[in-house]
Amino acid sequence: MHLALAAIRNDETSARSSGVNIFNYLLIAFVITSVLQGMMGAIQVQSYGFTTPDTAFDANFTLLPLAMALLGGIHSTIGPMAGAVLLGVASEWLKLKIPYGHLVVYGIIIILVILFMPQGLFGLARKARRERSKAGASHE
User: Fold this and answer.
1) d(CA 71, CA 20)
2) How far is CA 29 from CA 1, 18, 19, 50, 64, in A?
3) For the chain, where are the alpha helices, taking DSSP H only?
4) CB 120 within 8 Å of CB 70
5) Nearest-CA neighbor of 67 among 86, 92, 53, 95?
6) Taking the model in full, what pTM does it have?
7) Among residues 70, 62, 54, 74, which one has the least CA distance to residue 103?
8) Residue 53 has pLDDT above 70, yes or no
9) Distance separating alpha carbons of residues 109 and 18, to the nearest angstrom
10) pLDDT in tens, 95-135
11) What's the start-to-end Cα distance of the chain, in Å?
């Protein structure tokens, strides 16, 4: 499934011509994502005892996960987790130092990552590793 979704992400037409049933894979991805979102909503209700549009669509709950995923890198499994750890710690510190300015910082992080690091931190690490291995291979 991973290879099929990666093929669809890279080029839908090529994936279709290779025999990948795009509709089925996208439907499966949609269902899995919807189930996970439903579980997160249930956890939120369990944590707070209720939910309202103010809490469900709070900028902190929408911007922070997006910034975490983009910072870590959305093309890897461990990237969003690393972004969550980094921004989780940073967000608590920012909330103490700049009580309402932390949302602006999340927005700035999102913009900077999209402009300068579209592959995220793990994409940069992967690129640096490739360049090091090329440099090591050329010295031999």
Assistant:
1) 30
2) 10, 19, 18, 28, 22
3) 2-10, 12-17, 22-48, 53-56, 59-72, 78-97, 102-116, 120-139
4) yes
5) 86
6) 0.65
7) 62
8) yes
9) 37
10) 888 888 888 888 888 898 889 988 888 888 888 888 888 87
11) 39
